[in-house]
Structures are given as structure tokens and as C-alpha cells.
Amino acid sequence: MPTVAAHMGAGESELNDVVQSSLSTFLDAWRRGQYDRSRGRLSGFLLTILRSRVLDLIRRRGRDRMMTPLDAADETSAGSADAQRIWMDERRHQILVAALAELRASGMEQRTLEAFELHAMRETSVAEVASRLGMSVEEVYDAQYRVSRRLRPIAARLDELYEDL
């Protein structure tokens, strides 16, 4: 959520407060039964609350700096479509992190996982990965293939578990 809030316009020093306020509002609404699954995903409900908290923050900033309401609205860097895209990107990233942790726990060789992370996730060149890890270029490609093959079903399972989010 902090990543999404930052893209919506919350400053780094404000992120914790915005996220905490959003989660508190969400929990209160949930307890009162205000979330209706037939009206959309849980993530959409939570994003609406988060966006509202960020807009409140931006309006407060506007009052503090004597901005007009239009100026404050222009300061919001992400509309609801952008917020949804950012949310889904962050969700995919977290699923990948969890899937990699599961692979690590299964006993897959650390060097193989490190080669995958460096090349596939951090976009380090194959030659640089090979040099850094003492592998051949072919071994780096082989590591990427082996990790990808085992990662796909884990990520698919986690994606299904968190489908409502």
C-alpha cells in the first residue's frame, strides 16, 4: 500500500499515516458490513479508501499553502485507473517475492536463485551475472529456465489464493 499511496501523491514522510488511516477506515467499514462483494473486488474497496485518504492529505496541503481546490486536484498523480494498475503491479511483485521465498525454502540452490533474481528481476546483463557468480553464460540461462519452470505453478497458486485482492 505505501507504494500505491506514493504514486497517488503522498509524500515519503506521510506514507505511514496515510496507510494507517486507510487501514483503520477499512477495518471500521468492514466491521459495519459496508463492503459488498457484489459491487466489486476487495482491492477496489481498499483502493477507494486509500485514494480518499490521499486526496484528504492533498487538500490539507492545499489549505496549508493556500492552493485552490483545482490546484490540489491537479497535484494528485494517479487517477483510479492508475491506482488500480499500480496496485496490480505491486500485487504481482509481492506474489513473485513470496513464490521465490517458497522456492528458497524448498532447498533450491542459492546461486541458481541469485542468478535468476539478478538477471530476470534486476535486469542485470547475463555476462555481468555470470561474472559476479562465477558461472558461464549458459549456466545463467539454465538457472533462469529452471527457476522460471518451478516458479510458475507456485505463483499461479498464490495468485489464485489472492484473487479477490
Summarize the structure in words.
Helices cover 76% and strands 0% of the residues. With 165 residues, the chain is mostly helical. The protein folds into two domains: 1-78, no CATH class; 89-165, Arc Repressor Mutant, subunit A (Orthogonal Bundle).
- Give the beta-strand count: 0
Q: How many structural domains are formed by the residues?
A: 2
- Segments where pLDDT lies below 50 for 5+ residues? 70-78
**What share of the residues lie within helices?**
over 70%
SSE series: HHHHHHHH
Q: Which sheet architecture does the biggest sheet show?
A: none
Strand content: under 5%
What distance lies between the first and last C-alpha atoms, to the nearest angstrom?
A: 12 Å
Helix tally equals 8
Broad shape: elongated
Computed CA radius of gyration, to the nearest angstrom = 21 Å
| Mean pLDDT over all positions | 81
- Oligomer state of the chains in this structure: single chain
Helix vs. strand class = mainly alpha
From the structure above, extract its key features.
about 160 residues, mainly alpha, Arc Repressor Mutant, subunit A
Q: What does this entry show, briefly?
A:
Helix content is 76%, strand content 0%.
List the helices and strands and how they pair.
Elements lengths: L1 H7 L6 H17 L10 H23 L4 H7 L4 H26 L4 H12 L4 H8 L3 H25 L4
